[in-house]
Design a protein that fits this description.
374 residues; pyruvate-formate lyase- activating enzyme
Length: 374
């Protein structure tokens, strides 16, 4: 999920006096079917069979009297104005601020989750206060704070797909773009509901193998994540960026790093940004050491060797490690200092100096803007 460090502008939000069950709006879920022993949810690859009165793996989708209900619809735990670079997204609307919001729950159980206090919380958790924020209010806040986009982040947004859909429709009507900061664990049916509504698919690639995914986040395979990222990119023309948190002893071998870089290059395209970020000891992996800096530099080298044109360093101070450099002429097309963009030398998605395409989409410049988007 989105990194929790760095500056945030808090946003004031209003309540809408929720009815019983603490739900601001009782909305029926999408993608479910009735079976003998309960309801089958079709939003993520867990495809949970949920008995009456219970929730699925994510803790937020409940069987209420034979109907699947998203308990976190219009209920948020965090709202802030963030730089889009914090997500991290570097090649879409660089230098802009996005209204960022999240709730509680997740479809994974990452052992090193930085946002565990919300990702492992439930809607009934008294330690984590939820606020009510209707889709119309999200758009009003984005406009109030001068944000050209809305980002669904902090916890896993896929599990509140109904809210994402409703907010995103209104966002596009208002001329705003939308960003999903996601672990990518989604079914094709669910992704297709978001296909025309989401502009940016910022997805985590947590490892190269089934073993690494089982160790890190307790799901059996990265295959659904990879398959849906490809569908987001090539079928729905979403802008895709990939983040890998490099965890010592789990996904940091040269073989694993090369396999991940090769997949990004071959299946998503060599222009796809790959962010390799430094792991810090946390939660259930507190016994590990931070990622050695030399391992991160090796990942950057490997990424370039596998054909990737844009590989970035994250969670570490490295001169130039977050700059966008033109692969053709070597000019710094976008200069960054932390989350601050200090220079943008890009026009219509190409380097201003030599005209090399950089796969940078800047809404309003006509760079492959999607008909349904901004």
């Amino acid at each position: 999920m989105g990194r929790s460090t760095g500056p945030r502008r808090p946003v004031e939000i209003a309540s809408c006096s929720p009815p019983a069950r603490g739900v601001c709006v009782m909305r029926e879920a999408v993608l479910w079917s009735t079976e003998d022993r309960g309801i089958r949810c079709g939003v993520c690859p867990h495809r949970c069979l949920i008995p009456e009165g219970h929730t699925g793996f994510c803790n937020v989708r409940e069987n209420v009297g034979g109907t699947l209900v998203p308990l976190t619809y219009a209920r948020v735990s965090s709202v802030a104005v963030d730089p889009i670079e914090k997500k991290p997204v570097f090649h879409y609307a660089p230098g802009t601020q996005v209204l960022s919001l999240g709730s509680v729950g997740c479809s994974m159980r990452c052992r090193h989750c930085q946002n565990w206090s919300i990702s492992r919380a439930t809607p009934q958790d008294e330690a984590r206060e939820l606020h009510d924020l209707l889709p119309t209010a999200v758009i009003s806040l984005a406009q109030q704070y001068g944000c050209p986009g809305v980002a669904f982040t902090y916890n896993e947004p896929i599990i509140q797909i109904e809210y994402v859909m409703d907010v995103s429709r209104l966002a596009h009507e208002a001329g705003l773009f939308t960003v999903m900061v996601t672990n990518g664990y989604i079914t094709s049916e669910a992704l297709d509901l978001l296909g025309e509504l989401v502009d940016v698919w910022r997805v985590d690639l947590k490892g190269a193998t089934d073993e690494s995914y089982a160790k890190l986040c307790r799901v059996p395979s990265p295959a659904p994540v990879r398959e849906m990222a490809v569908r987001a990119r090539h079928h729905w023309d979403m802008h895709v960026e990939v983040v890998t948190n490099v965890v010592p002893t789990i996904n940091d071998s040269e073989e694993d790093l090369r396999a991940m870089a090769r997949w990004v290059a071959e299946d998503l395209g060599t222009d796809t940004p790959w962010h390799v970020t430094r792991f810090f000891p946390y939660l259930e992996l507190a016994d590990l050491d931070p990622t050695p800096i030399e391992t991160l530099h090796a990942a950057v080298r490997i990424g370039h060797e596998e054909g990737l044109r844009f590989v970035y360093l994250g969670n570490v101070a490295s001169e130039g490690g977050e700059n966008t450099v033109c692969p053709r002429c070597g000019a710094t097309a976008v200069k960054r200092a932390g989350y601050e963009v200090t220079r943008v030398k890009v026009r219509d998605g190409v380097c201003e100096r030599c005209g090399e395409p950089l796969n940078i989409r800047i809404p309003g410049q006509g760079v492959r803007d999607r008909e349904h988007g901004v």
